[in-house]
Amino acid sequence: MQFNATTRSVQGSSASRRLRRAGRVPAIVYGGTEQPLNIELDHNEIYHALRKEAFHASILSMQLDGKSHPVLLRSVQWHAYKPQVLHVDFQRVLANEAITTKVPLNFINGDQSPAVKLGGAMISHVVTEVEVKSLPADLPASIDVDLSSLQSGESLHVSSLVLPAGVTVIGDAAQVVATAIVPAGGAAEGEGEGAAEA
């Protein structure tokens, strides 16, 4: 995904307020061997981009001064009660430097699992993203979690995830990712079919 940016020459809180009144958003790009770079963004463009999951978990193409720069979204500051973006932080991405970022989990085949088809279980998605480390070229947009073999009362853990080549998960390998919960009183065979959460 790409977005447009322009170099920001003025800094400070009063300058930032003027930018926001003009429909612009102050932002910064840091990391790599270069100095932090102050930029500004179009509010409407960045607001709609931030509503897309891929914008939060992909290497982005920042269009600045006629060139494309690979960056990662690092943090967003929102207004306390208005749908307004106040500030955005990006990190430069270097092809030969590993990056650490969060990647969403894509749960598949839940309705085919024995837990749902035979046990009438509900599948609870305990976590919806994991932090990974990889080179930029290896970073996946998402990681599939295959629930097709999940039995009633069982759980899947981070250690069970099938990761793309060159990708490692940061954190607790014993963390539960999904679990099959049988409702109180159980369920008749077949009643739970299709009960998996989307």
UniProtKB/TrEMBL annotation:
Q: Where are the bilayer-spanning segments? A: none
Alphabetical GO CC annotations of the entry are: cytosolic large ribosomal subunit
Cross-referenced Pfam families: Ribosomal_L25p, Ribosomal_TL5_C
Instruction: Provide the Large ribosomal subunit protein bL25 beta domain boundaries.
Output: 99-183
Superkingdom, natural source: Bacteria
Is Flavoprotein one of the keywords UniProt gives this record? no
Listed GO molecular functions?
Answer: 5S rRNA binding; structural constituent of ribosome
GO BP terms in the entry: translation
Q: Where is the Large ribosomal subunit protein bL25 L25 domain?
A: 4-90
Give the UniProt keywords, A-Z: Ribonucleoprotein, Ribosomal protein, RNA-binding, rRNA-binding
Role this protein plays: This is one of the proteins that binds to the 5S RNA in the ribosome where it forms part of the central protuberance.
- What does the similarity note say? Belongs to the bacterial ribosomal protein bL25 family. CTC subfamily.
Q: Which HAMAP family does this UniProt record tie to the protein?
A: Ribosomal_bL25, Ribosomal_bL25_CTC
Query: Quaternary structure per UniProt?
Result: Part of the 50S ribosomal subunit; part of the 5S rRNA/L5/L18/L25 subcomplex. Contacts the 5S rRNA. Binds to the 5S rRNA independently of L5 and L18.
Protein name per Swiss-Prot or TrEMBL: Large ribosomal subunit protein bL25
Q: Per the UniProt entry, what species is this protein from, by scientific name?
A: Kerstersia gyiorum
